[in-house]
Amino acid sequence: MPDSLKKKLKLKVSAINNGTVIDHIPSENLFKVISILGLQNVKTQITFGANFESEKLGSKAIIKLSDVFFEDDEINKISLIARNAKLNIIRDYEVVEKRVVEVPDKVIGIVKCFNPKCITNNEEITTYFNVISKNPLDLKCKYCEKITHEDQMVIK
Amino acid sequence: MKKDLISITDYSKEDYLRILELAADFEKNPNQRLLDGKVVASLFFEPSTRTRLSFETAINRLGGRIIGFSDAGSSSVSKGETLHDTIRMVSNYVDLIVMRHPLEGSSRYAAEVASVPVINAGDGANQHPTQTLLDMYSILKTQGTLDNINIFMVGDLKYGRTVHSLLMAMSQFENPVFNFIAPEELAMPEEYKLFLKEKGIRYFEHTEINDNINHADIIYMTRVQKERFMDPIEYEKVKNVYILRNSMLENTKPNMRILHPLPRINEIHPDVDNNEKAYYFEQARNGVFTRQAIIAHILNLK
Ligand SMILES: [Zn+2]
Question: Closest to B103 (Cβ–Cβ): which among A122, A142, A146?
Fold first, then answer.
């Protein structure tokens, strides 16, 4: 069997009629993406798989969501942990639109402030960061004013 | 919308100038009963006698009443009440909240929760904007202007929040020059140097106090604290390098004044105290007028 065909078959977890396919998620962040997007509350069919081979990521995960479509604001939340994620919007078994995720200007919730003396790490407060650099990612906490760098980022 | 004072960079140059103008007015005439019938909460979740007395004097001179506590041990906080609930409760009682708290960002959060204005009297190592305004008032009073000032900052420039805030504030004025004197491990952080570069403001870095201070209009001294050093041997090496002595001041400019946020440890030798260039005790006195001015500005009393 030719490699390209093998690949196609491998990725074909299950074809969807209408909905969204999120591709190129780093495998280790699959469950974080599910949680950030709140997919546990979705009632339509969801299939996902992890540890697919990927030239870019080494190992990637894919999520397929029937009848689910995202607003930009919503989907961009995952950019922090799935920088290269790509969305395929499916209608009638056809890919009608491809989208990439973008790092937003503000990050609300999701990320923990790295500063242990920050009020947000000591009381139930939604974190709030202004993104001061997108690559590498630098997040400035609205409260303690300290900068959480990409390599210090912990997802809540 | 209510006005708060949380971080010095929340305010514009116009706000600074307005507050300094009011401070001069309060210095001339300190007893003005503008807070008559008003109640101010003074919430010190960690003790700071100096700052608290300065605020409470300012409030008293304005004729206001004070409720509050001077350390968290004597408040409901010790019973595990959240900051959120304390602030919600207190803001129902008062017209203004002055707070100091050991956690960084606590004041910004309190200002979001409170229905009345909040003044940050220090949130951990983060901000202490009323200190910055009283520093500016001291510079204005001694130099007659905030433009063209050559400021030497000495000591712990890495963790010293007062020098960071003063740098940000003075950068709003014409043609400042900054000189940083610090050991390598306590040098001014890159982000502030980058900020100055981007604004085209000149700065110079030195590792010892020598003849370079003869150019200074202001020498701003800070404490070099032992606990900032990873290696105690490094501290022993530098601790006596950053001590200002009277003999060093001989050729400094006649208008030069020495500031220090106080309390000092050993970084200004007592033999400096009688030099007319020593200004740190007057600086503390200026704090009361400046805080009166800040309160009047925030509550639109004048
Ligand atoms: Zn923070």
Answer: A122
